[in-house]
Design brief:
Helix content is 29%, strand content 0%. The longest helix has 15 residues. The radius of gyration is 12 Å and the shape is globular. Pfam families: CxxCxxCC.
Length: 84
């Protein structure tokens, strides 16, 4: 699956425990990444400061669903199900 341009669900729904530029403690689930622009595109994409966890994310119908809204729901559910 290819990421839907302008989706940004993976930059909002999950928590990120590794440091992100500007967020040394990472980001909380449901919090919009500060590097997501108004078009919901990552401003760190392709840059060396992009966190490894973000670069490793692979779009997949099981987590991205059929729409941005479904992706936010699915990723949010996975976040809750795997929270420690």
């Amino acid at each position: 699956m290819i990421c839907r341009a302008g989706c940004g669900a993976c930059c909002i729904a999950p928590s990120i425990s590794s440091p992100i530029p500007g967020l040394p403690q990472g980001k909380a689930a449901g919090e919009r990444c500060p590097h997501l622009n108004v078009e919901n595109l990552c401003q760190l994409f392709g840059k060396p400061e992009r966190p490894d966890v973000c670069a490793a994310f692979q779009a997949d119908p099981m987590v991205c669903g059929d729409s941005r809204e479904e992706a936010i729901q699915l990723l949010g559910w996975l976040e809750e199900a795997t929270a420690a």
